[in-house]
Amino acid sequence: MEVTPNASSKKKMSDNTKSSIFLSPALILLLIFFLTPMLLTIVFSFTNLALTGSQAQNIKFVGFDNFIQMFNDAQLYNSIGKTLLFVLFSAILGQCLLGFLIAFLMKGKNAAFRRAIGITVIAAWVTPEIVVGFSWVAFLGDNGTLNSIITALSGIEPIAFLFEYPMVSVVLANIWRGTAFSMMAFQAALDDIPLEVEEAAVMDGASRWRIVRNITIPIVKGTITTNLMLVTLQTLGVFTLIYAMTGGGPGNATMTLPVYMYQQAFVSYQLGYGTAISLVILIIGALFSLLYMRFLKVKV
Questions:
Q1: 127, 134 in Cβ contact below 8 A?
Q2: Are 85 and 167 spatial neighbours (Cβ–Cβ below 8 Å)?
Q3: What is the pTM of this model?
Q4: 3-state class of 2 per DSSP?
Q5: Does the keyword Transmembrane apply (predicted)?
Q6: What is the C-alpha separation between 224 and 1, in angstroms, rounded?
Q7: In which band, very low, low, confident or very high, does the pLDDT at 1 lie, cut at 50, 70 and 90?
Q8: Domains, the chain, with CATH or none
Q9: Is the separation of the CB atoms in 208 and 256 below 8 Å?
Q10: 185-234 pLDDT, tens per residue?
Q11: What's the pLDDT tens digit per position in 240-295?
Q12: Using CB atoms within 10 A of its CB, is residue 28 exposed (0-12), middle (13-18) or buried (19+)?
């Protein structure tokens, strides 16, 4: 029995309608919890919205006043610099490289070894940021675990790591917590590389470094790009860890954009200015994503 074009077209339309019906709850949730807050953020960034005072009751459209204030705000530029520094050492040079190294060293090892290392690394990743923050404060504090070990072994006075090396402290804590995601992403990608390809390169006399540079990295380039974007965007938004460890201090030493945005919005009660700062974070994240795709030449 032949199916006429009209019958086929009607069946296709019926299938599309059914698909739309099943997808509609997810689309509605996406609209409510993702697109709506994003649009409200953009709208509020052009207002004088505040938590207290007359501005809390009389919201006014102020045009680009918040953005003009940002361009004249020296602390904003300091926070952008701190944020880029935190992302560079924590996400790019820390989590991504360390995650790739762990995954590469685990490749081909027995299941028990891979499981033990995997559980150890993932345990940090599933720990809430607030717990990680307080744990590292206990570890790096004046009377913390690290200072107790140093004093016992060398007899020198305790070092105030959180005061003298605050950025290093929060970077190490974030690397410790976030490396597991990169490790799992690279482990899955490396396991998909056919053994025959690497064995053929070894038979041709290629060194381990040449295999990694000319075979491994080109094959997992897509994973590298995706992982870099995800880890960078996640690191751009890190707030709880830094706030729990240093509160953005001492002084402004760890005042990244999320911490500065929080202080302006919920400490100084200037929600309009705080939402304008959040758009800067969004723009930086978009620029990083475009840079990664352009640098690694990944088609989208």
A1: no
A2: yes
A3: 0.85
A4: coil
A5: yes
A6: 51
A7: very low
A8: 73-296 (1.10.3720.10)
A9: no
A10: 998 888 888 878 877 888 877 777 888 888 888 888 888 888 988 999 99
A11: 999 999 999 898 999 999 999 999 999 989 999 999 999 999 899 889 888 887 77
A12: exposed
Tokens of 135: 């744990």
DSSP alpha helix (H) spans, the chain: 5-30, 36-44, 54-57, 65-71, 74-87, 97-106, 111-125, 129-140, 145-154, 161-164, 166-191, 195-203, 208-211, 217-219, 221-236, 240-245, 257-262, 271-295
Would you state the structure tokens that stand for residue 264, as one six-digit string? 């302006």
The string over 36-50, giving b where at least 16 C-beta atoms fall within 10 Å of a residue's C-beta and e elsewhere, is eeeeeeeebbbbbbb
Distance, in Å, from the CA atom of 234 to the CA atom of 129, rounded to the nearest integer, reads 12
Does residue 187 contact residue 103 with C-beta atoms inside 8 Å? yes
Q: Is the pLDDT of residue 73 over 80?
A: yes
